[in-house]
Amino acid sequence: MVIELYWLLALPLFFALGWVAARIDLKHLLKESRALPRSYFRGLNFLLNEQPDKAIEAFLEAARVDPETVELHFALGSLFRRRGETDRAIRVHQNLIDRDGSSPQLTEDQRLHALAELGEDYLKAGLLDRAEEIFLKLRGTARDEEALKFLLEIYQQEKEWGKAISVAQAMPNHSDHLWQKAIAEFYCELASSEMLHGNTAQARERLGEALAVNRKCVRAAVLLGELEFNEGRFDPAIEAWKRIEQQTPIYVALVAERLLEAHRRVGREELALQLLHGYLERHPSLDLLDIVFDAELKSGGAPAAYTLVRDELRRNPTLLGLDKMLEAQILVSPPERHADLELIKNLVHAHTRRVARYRCDACGFKARQFHWRCPGCGGWETYPPKRTEEFDLTP
After folding, report:
1. Domain contains 118
2. 298-328 pLDDT tens trace
3. Does the pTM exceed 0.85?
4. What's the domain range around 292?
5. Per the domain annotation, does 189 fall within a domain?
6. 354-363: pLDDT as tens digits
7. Considering the domain boundaries, does residue 305 fall inside one?
8. How many domains does the chain have?
9. Is residue 130 part of a domain?
């Protein structure tokens, strides 16, 4: 391959230009680093070592040396908020927004950033009306999606379900399954409120909207059954609750007792017991076992209840099931054995307390009662009606 002479002459020139450019960049970097206060680097070091208190002190010193550094103020405000000093965070971000002509003006992106941070400060401080005002100002800007997210959080805290629906529907990905579940739950909250005030027609309409958004909304089916039951329409109530098996089968335990009561009202208690036995066989559940056990005890007596719980324990061995079987065994055993069985039952019962709670699928928060919305992470329908022990035994 023939190499032109001028290429050979140009190679040293390219090397020289590259060396000069590198020196210029290095000098510029060193000049910039010298311009930054030493306390700025100390603050970064404290942050990396997870020492936020010392980082704040260092950044405050840096801000006094160079009060025009916008990013320092953002870092300080965020650290104050994380520590719970929301009043100081609010002052930092408000000062940024209120800069006068003597200080360099914020760019539009920095101004929106400062507004968003101030809104978060107000939200953390519990000043929901002020936070709402800030995030409404951010609608239609580059921070629109962030504003929607925080507005939704505010409206859920304030139980403004109509506004929450509007905001959720404005989300760019509002058609996703998770958003459909949340919007359906908002409609259910509205329906619950209407039912509480005796507005059955409006409640029925809200439940219809919930099912239109998410046809698998179990809560809507539960409330619809309650609505029919309260109006004395027991057969439609039964049908509404039976549909839950097609929606999400594990939730049938939530309505098992109501199903039993509705069947009693129309004189079909035996049929209800058969239905619940079928549910228990297809969808084993400790809550469902409790209800079927009590029903069997009333209907067939202690021997039938004992046989039921013994067979279920063989099929699904659990401590909670054993506790229930010991209860049944006490009922069918001779009086002289009661003391020993009571002792065993009390020992088992002491251990079942820690496994008898519901657990959130999303964050793991545990509670003694069932919630449609997790008190820990705020997720909707993240609390399956299963006890902790059932989760631990599931492969």
Report:
1. no
2. 888 888 888 888 888 888 777 777 777 777 7
3. no
4. 284-355
5. no
6. 667 888 888 8
7. yes
8. 2
9. no
